[in-house]
Amino acid sequence: MSGLREKMWLIITVFLVLSLAAGIVFLSIRLAHLQPVEITLYDPKPLNLSENISISGAVVRPGIYEAKPGDTLTSIVSAAGVSENADTSNLRIYIPTKNEFSQTQKVNLNRAEAWLLQSLPGIGEGRARLIVEYRDKNGPFRNLDDLLKIEGFGTSVVDKIRDYATVVD
Question: CATH no. for residue 135?
């Protein structure tokens, strides 16, 4: 019986060696067809937030906000005042291309309340109040340059808001 046992062990050993060799050949063939994958990581240029940002939607004070270096998305959105029914879990940011035409809604200096005037770049609470007082006293503005008649308004302030304000009756 020991001869039969030796033959069984020999057959099992040969079977295992052949199985191992077949597995190695099979893996070699499968791996030979794989090509290396090149991964390119996108390195975005740093965003310069020293520009005007338009905020609209479910905010208390929609309008144009001047972003300063170091401002965060949270601080800019907080300045606009998030309304009670806002879904802050689903914010959308849209960045236009350089040549893209944007249709920014303009603030009408002849009808806007002080809180809305404050959304214009360079117009704070004091200047917004002066605009309303001037308008109430002197009637509607005929053009944006009428702002120069108000004390504290220079050409630099008027030029800042030129793209964001209008004087429609």
Answer: 1.10.150.320
- Three-class SS state of 61: coil
Regions of the chain where pLDDT drops below 50: none
Q: Are 79 and 65 within 8 A, CB to CB? A: yes
Q: Which pLDDT does position 148 carry in this prediction?
A: 93
Where in the sequence is the domain holding 168, given as residue range(s)? 106-169
Separation of first and last alpha carbons in the chain: 114
- Residue 120 CB-density burial (10 A; 0-12 exposed, 13-18 middle, 19+ buried): buried
Q: Are 86 and 97 in contact (CB under 8 A)?
A: no
Does a structural domain hold residue 46?
no
Using one digit for the tens of pLDDT, what is the confidence trace for 80-104? 888 888 888 877 777 777 776 656 6
Would residue 131 count as lying in a domain? Answer: yes
pTM for the structure as a whole:
0.44
CA distance 4 to 113: 105
pLDDT for 49 equals: 60
